[in-house]
Amino acid sequence: MKNRTILASLALVLSVSSQSIAADMVFTSWGGTTQDVQKSAWADKFTAKSGINVLQDGPTDYGKIKAMVEAKGVNWDVVDVEGDYAIQAGDKGMLEKLDFKTIDKSSLDPRFVTDYSVGSFYYSFVIGCNKDAVAACPKSWAELFDTKKFPGKRTFYKWSAPGVIEAALLADGVTPDKLYPLDLDRAFKKLDTIKSDIVWWSGGAQSQQLLASAEAPFGSFWNGRLTALAATGVTVETSWAQNITAADALVVPKGTKNKEAAMKFIAFATSPEGQAEMAAGTGYAPVNTKSPALMDPAIAKTLPDQQTSSQVNADMAYWAKHRDEIGERWYAWQSK
Amino acid sequence: MLLNFNSLGSWKWVLLAITFLTAAFLLLPILFIAALSFGSSQWLIFPPPAWTTKWYSQLFADPRWLDAAWTSFRIAVMVTLLSVVIGLFAAFGLVRGRFFGRTLLRALFMTPMILPVVVLAVALYAFFLRIGLNGTTTGFVIAHLIVALPFSILALTNALEGFDKSIEDAAVLCGASPLKARLLITLPSISHGLFSAAVFSFLTSWDEVVLAIFMASPTLQTLPVKIWATLRQDLTPVIAAASTLLIVVTIALMLVTALVRKGLKA
Amino acid sequence: MASPTSALEEQTTTRFRLGDRSSTLPALVLILIFFVLPVLALLARSVTEPVLGLGNYVELLGSSTYIKIFFNTFFVSALVTVISLLIGFPVAWALAIMPQRLATVIFAIVLLSMWTNLLARTYAWMVLLQRTGVINKALLGLGIIDKPLIMVNNLTGVTIGMTYIMLPFIIIPLYGVIRKIDPALLQAAALCGANRRQALTSVLIPLAMPGMAAGGLMVFVMSLGYFVTPSLLGGTSNMMLAELIAQFVQSLVNWGMGGAAAFVLLVVTLSLYALQLRLFGAAGEGGR
């Protein structure tokens, strides 16, 4: 008898869940400090200005988006996704068309605007090097692929996404205007020459760890990660030569019940002030061309949008169209 | 004589050596994580440039970690209770029952362990969306229960199979009811099976991350999800601090239990 | 042939019959509603997406990449299982017979090793095993090696990492099994003139076999579905099936292929399991 009472009260205590907060919309991103900045620069300020409450969720998962759109039970209102996925998902009918009456796209970088998405922020793949660990640092993609001049391990992004294939082609001598359509055979041939010296990074944190510990003293990185790494005291040398841009995008899954709030949120996030604050906090570039004027010049010049002298833009539309086939060939090559 | 420690002769040392080496192997990462949690560098470099407790201060300053830990704990407890009870019933049926399709049923119960969790996660997520269970504690517990049950059933069927039923029958013959015989004779005898079932069920739920990501909501997050989201984006020894803290608390609990048991025996 | 047991079960009232198939009902209902139905719905997509037919399976089984990943997955799982059994058996044996105090401490260490978060443990191994990691630094410093060992981003790393996780799943159940073995049986063997080796191979191991088979199965099956540890500790040429399926489901959002891969894995594994049940049976039936 006594045991039953204990069990019952235990069940009662354990089933009490925390109070659910009344939210007016949900913003989902990839987590970590980037999302923390998105929260403080966008969500909190948006709530203060409009009174619409914003709940944070994550990490972004494309499987979840597909499931919720199909089940007509969408509970993510604005999602930060990869640029090429945004285009593909839009074509597949998974996203709401953006309301450009609410969202002012006039000063947005046109590279990152489509019917279904606007840029969230953009970044560049650059060459990073731990200066204390090696005698010399590679300064171009060709040098990064040169194991004779620069022996040792190098690190690249593991997943199939814009960046590595382009770097291989550029290293092999392809000029930026002739990059697309991507010659996959040529790229994989070039990658084969250094395959045994590659250590793959699967997340931003891992890339920083590899560089900091000199397990892979140089490689291809997201520029923001190198900025953050340098700030913790590691001597990082960055080369922006032929840096390859890619972008994250903000989308609205089809069938969301908070469409109006979602559009207003995106309008705020892509405003000059919203983008400026985001850039300052993350080291990534703003997609609003009016933002650099609002920023501290010292910070502004470390951002990708100022490194345009030899910048190469990854073609998001091309990737969106060939996402699946490139993915299959990529994993096939990796597993060899 | 093989089961008598003292009469093993030289084999005793071989066994002890393997055991100590294995124990050292099992301890190494734990000690390493503990050491890292006091290192001043954000990066996992050993030896660290300096020592600090700032990661622990960060941990305590952020209520979301404690929140996540508490959520993980209460879900794991519920899952364990349900898994052991339902698993026990199922084990009795599988071991004692004589019916067609027993082997098939056994295989069916094992399937949640075989199927990659991500498939179950997406399937359950889509299902729960339609019946309104997603983002709820109930849904979470059900999801974890599905993957914990195979461990429970496996451990308990094995324990029951190794149990000599005639002792239980003897008790019934002596006048005890079947229920009493099972409670007082069988259960204590398979206590190790119950322990295994409970431990594996608890740990399966406690450490589970893929299902948790799908079952979570902004207000319902477990510790592994928080660690996963944080670690993918930013490396920080706060996680090492959290892990170490957990170990310390567990060791403390184990010591207390041992002392209490000693006190009870005295 | 009315055994006392069946006669008893006849006598006892059917109000509380724990021991026939009806007590498997709660588990069965749970698994049917919350596992079989939703999963079948998803797996069905393997023949409906992107078009009706077996296209996904043809692509899967016809591609050398996927076949390689399949084989690699089963190979690594088998390797980890064998190594865990080889290490786990002596440890469980030692635990079952060593002085109580020492056994408690070692057992606590085994439990504690399961208690740390999986990601934390895997990252720890990553840093320990690196070229510039602690183990290499120590070995180099002691002069045991003169070039760093490559123990991560390859099969070695995956094996070490996964064995670390799987060992307790062998040790804990096997410990219980060995403890239950009647020492008299081994004393009898000694009396019959068996030396230690003969007693080990003809008596102890067969008696412990059901425990080893159960633990081994659990570890093998769990390894098949793992991808966090192999992903962080292995190289891309060691890619495991679970990681591929996760990529299909969550990133490429190709549920047709993901479902097909999962289904093939399921069929192969269940067949192996059925084989194991037939070979080793249940201790109450085939056993001794």
Automatic annotation (TrEMBL), chain A:
<keyword id="KW-0732">Signal</keyword>
<dbReference type="InterPro" id="IPR006059">
    <property type="entry name" value="SBP"/>
</dbReference>
<feature type="signal peptide">
    <location>
        <begin position="1"/>
        <end position="22"/>
    </location>
</feature>
<dbReference type="Pfam" id="PF13416">
    <property type="entry name" value="SBP_bac_8"/>
</dbReference>
<protein>
    <submittedName>
        <fullName>ABC transporter substrate-binding protein</fullName>
    </submittedName>
</protein>
<keyword id="KW-0574">Periplasm</keyword>
